[in-house]
Amino acid sequence: MRPITPLFLVVALLLTGGATRLAYIEYSEGEALRSRASAQHTATISFPALRGDILDARGRVLAGSAPRPTIFVDPSAVDDPTFAAHSIAPVLGLSSEALERELRERSDRGYLVLKREVSDAELARFKHVRDARRLRAFGIQADSQRVYPYGALGGQILGFVGAEGRGAGGVELFYDEHLVGTPGYRRSIVDVQRRRLRQSPDDYVAPRDGATVVLTIDAYVQQVAEQHLAKAVADHRAEWGVATVLDALSGEVLAMANAPMFDPSNPVPPGASPEQVSAALELLQNRAVSFAYEPGSTFKPFIAAMAMEDGLTRIGEVFAINGPRRMFGSRTINDTHGYASLLFEEILSRSSNIGMGLIGARCGNERLHRHVRLFGFGDATGVGLPGEHSGQVNDFTNWGPFSTQSIPIGQEISVTCLQLANAFNVFATDGVLLRPRIVRGIVAADGRMIWDNSRPVPIRRVMSEATARAVRIQALAQTVVSGTGKTAAIPGYQVFGKTGTAQIARPGGYLAGKYTASFVCGAPTLNPRLTVAVSVYKPTGQYYGGQVAAPAAGRILADVLRYMQVPSEAHFDAKGSLQDRAGGD
Amino acid sequence: MPRTITQAEHSAPPRIDDAGDAGALYDGTMVFLVGLLMALGVVIVFSATAGVGPLKLAPETLLQSPLRHAAFALAAFVGMLIVAHMDYRALACTTPRRATPVLVIFAVAVLLQAAALIIPDRAAGGIGGQRSVPIPIGGGAISFQPAEFGKVALVLALAGLLSCRWFSIRSFLHGFLPVVLGCGVLIGLTGLADFGTAALLGVMTLILLILGGARWLHLAAMALVGGAAGAVLILAAPYRIERIRTFLSGAADEAGSGYQIRQSLIAIGSGGWWGRGLGASVQSYGYLPQANNDFVFAVICEELGIIGGIAVIGVFLLLLFRGLFLARRATDSFGRLLATGLAVMIGLQAAFNVGVVTHALPTKGISLPFVSEGGSGIVFLGLGAGLLAAVGRSAARRSA
Description:
The complex is a heterodimer.
Chain A: H1 5-41, E1 42-47, E2 54-55, E3 61-73, H2 81-92, H3 96-105, E4 112-115, H4 120-132, E5 138-147, H5 155-158, E6 160-161, E7 167-168, H6 170-174, H7 176-179, E8 184-189, E9 203-205, E10 212-215, H8 219-235, E11 240-247, E12 252-259, H9 274-284, H10 287-290, H11 300-309, E13 318-320, E14 325-328, E15 331-334, E16 341-343, H12 344-349, H13 353-374, E17 392-393, H14 403-406, E18 413-414, H15 417-428, E19 432-434, E20 439-443, E21 449-452, E22 458-461, H16 465-481, E23 496-506, E24 509-523, E25 530-537, H17 545-548, H18 550-563, H19 581-584
Helix pairs in contact in A: 2-3, 2-4, 8-18, 11-13, 11-16
Chain B: H1 2-11, H2 28-50, H3 68-85, H4 100-118, E1 133-137, E2 140-144, H5 146-162, H6 172-193, H7 195-211, H8 216-236, H9 238-248, H10 258-271, H11 296-329, H12 333-357, H13 377-391, H14 395-399
Antiparallel strand pairs in B: 1-2
């Protein structure tokens, strides 16, 4: 017999080679293989977070989230597509054949949504069938569905939520990072059919629901503003209109109305054409902050008050007007009525362009520019809404001789409705410019305060208390008593305001016969609580601010003052002049 | 020289080693090593199959349950002990008449292998051919693998014939040719269904013929014919070409035939040096096909780590060298040839299996001896191991 030891050594060498090979595999690709292993062994299921609510100042839910069941399937875990499809499809009102085809085609997938927003009855039947037939591949998840209980109310403020659950437009967009929350997940070790293994503990992180955004908007005020604005826009067949209602003392935006309105729960009609989509997106624009227009005569009080503040004029000064037409250098300025002379306060209440031209001449460009900037024009207010326009104040190097008369009558400048209301609010606050606020605060789902924005934010004192009170009580109140804004008068409260009828600027001139009719006002005059600005774009027929915007503004004031239970202040006599109680105040 | 050493041993105090124990009936070390591998196999196979079905301890479901393998392993262990207690020399072919039992066993192996090709395999035991024949029993079926029986029978028959004086392998017509033809029939029948085992049988035949003293000229001629037959077998079955191509392409074909070897490497790698822990395999949850039989070694590496895998290889090395020790100590050439054949076959099969699992060899159906689940296969292997242990019966018994 031949020797056997060499044979054993060869076999031992082969076995040792196997051991070496093992060590080499670990050494050369161990890490790569482990990452591949964890990739194929791990299945992650996401648990959506509920999107945070948007509340009005009184706690009304303007935008909320409701969990709606979504039924999904893991096609890779379906053993028998025919059986599964014919069991589940009828329950959900789907086509069995289509579902079976889909299950077969997507059998490599781990997740497929079958139906969203399943009704309770469907859900109960689905659960019954699934459990009875042991269809483990089918599951239910709670998806967050956005609901807007007040319909289109404040639609442009709120914006909407897109298909991906992310905010699009308005508060939904601006505070999306707070509203959206953090989805949770469960990471499990699964077998090849994607079933969880019992042996391994799951890595579970609970979803964190989004934070609640509390607005300064009051749904009732918003509704009132929207109703009266819509009526004005409809009555005057205007293109659109905006209205802003501020709480005078705090700078909180109580309402910001747009006409026409935007319905956040139906942002784009299903199957919309590209034109309809762009129309819907146009509608989404919150023009109260995103659209800047020439303010026209509504701008006059700012210039006149600052001239008075600087001692360049005073209440009771008589200005020689010699209207209705007057040359300033090569520039002709027209008044609608021919006045021989006007008091300083009458220049405002009767809205004399010539009078403002004279005041502008006294100020000079440099001073005018400084005054305009003091009111915050040319700067975005920072109210906290997306797409806010800063308005346009030309760089001072671009001001020319015409500016001296253009600026005092609200030309060569553009403002947003919010800027206009907020600047006018300086008269209501006795001279202090506040930052307008539309969000009072953000509260996390666990009740923790993320952001407290409930206190007024003063920016600067623009004019003295005396100047503000004098202009408000003696000039602006007269607009409503005897001037261009008599249509804004309301029972029980003295309104102060200023009309504006601005031609619509186009490059190199103005559109013929197209106007922005505006009225900016406040009430009550002695202790102002509200500031309202209404602008109606391109009305047909009547177009004066006093005719188109002032009645709507007056009605908003009347309704909201009553709602706020502001004490009536009927301290004006029959002729409409102020009684002495004002002096003793 | 060996004689003087033996004399020195006689004067030395009695050793505790039971193999050297004067009264030892069989080699306990061998039984211990095989038992160790079987026990490991029971645990690993249970772990690898427990996830697939529910665990029920009812008699009628035992044959499908993860405990099925435990039952077979127990039978194999008992069978090994029984055979180990017998005197292997009863099978020695000292006269032509006494060659009958060995030749009958071999003939049965050939017949079973032929039967396996005819009986349809509804249970679809192994991939790419019928490695097992289901035998219906009660509610279930025992899969019977004739190839496992054939391996032991081949070694036994060759060892028996080549070690007897009346039979000369050096004669071509009356020695070499009939032996080779007989083995060729068994190998050929096996190879039709199971190329891996056939290759192993071929190698074992060659080894035993060399050790048995066959002429080199005859062996060269046989190698030529055998190589040609192997080539025909490869070309006859397309999946074998596919396997070789998969191997050569470096397992690049993820979804196709490279999937299994890729998953095997993932199992090995995901264990790291120290493994996930016993019973913690994830790859066996359907990712790794045949995690309970041909690729059980990958699951061992996943659960016990590279260290565990090397330790298992170490056990096979110990088993191999214990076989060498027993073969060298055997006084008769039948025992020596039998021990050599069985130990080398077990070692080679283990090395092949590790090679396949670690992607050092192309995928072919070779199980890990004593560890892989394989129905009745482990019982025949256990009987073989019993023969191996029986060769270790001590000199005192031997002379008695």
